Amino acid sequence: MKKTVSIFLLLISFCCTGSLYAQKNKLSKEEFRQKQQEFIIQRAELTPDEAKKFFPLYFELQDKKGRCNREAWEKMRQGKNPGTSEAEYAQIVEDIIQARITNDNLDMEYLKKYKTFLTSKKIYDIQRAEMRFHRELLKNARNAHRKRAAENPSR
Question: Would the pTM of this model clear 0.85, i.e. be above it?
Fold first, then answer.
């Protein structure tokens, strides 16, 4: 059970990385999305027409998944209550898994939409670019943390 929750938390952390990056660097949601869009366009070599069709759907999907992930985090927070019963924990775990399933179903739904104007190769390139974007965000956040720690060793 802990392994399932850990995997889910890792997945949510990737989804939330963007908002954390935006907050730490004082970017608005729109500014963050603009950086993400530019990165994906460059890395996946999207044409202007492909980008024009892709990004409204992509950000719509991200908003839906974000709502789903926020609900899952609410469930996780309920489990912090020391008085939580075994039955409540069972429901929390099921709800968290259901959130993952919902996210996966959303991904499949939008994949079908993307395939109406993108090749599978291009979708693959977009997925790789998105993963690279998040990896670089995490790397930059780690480096910034290390730099702050080096500047303030008393922390």
Answer: no
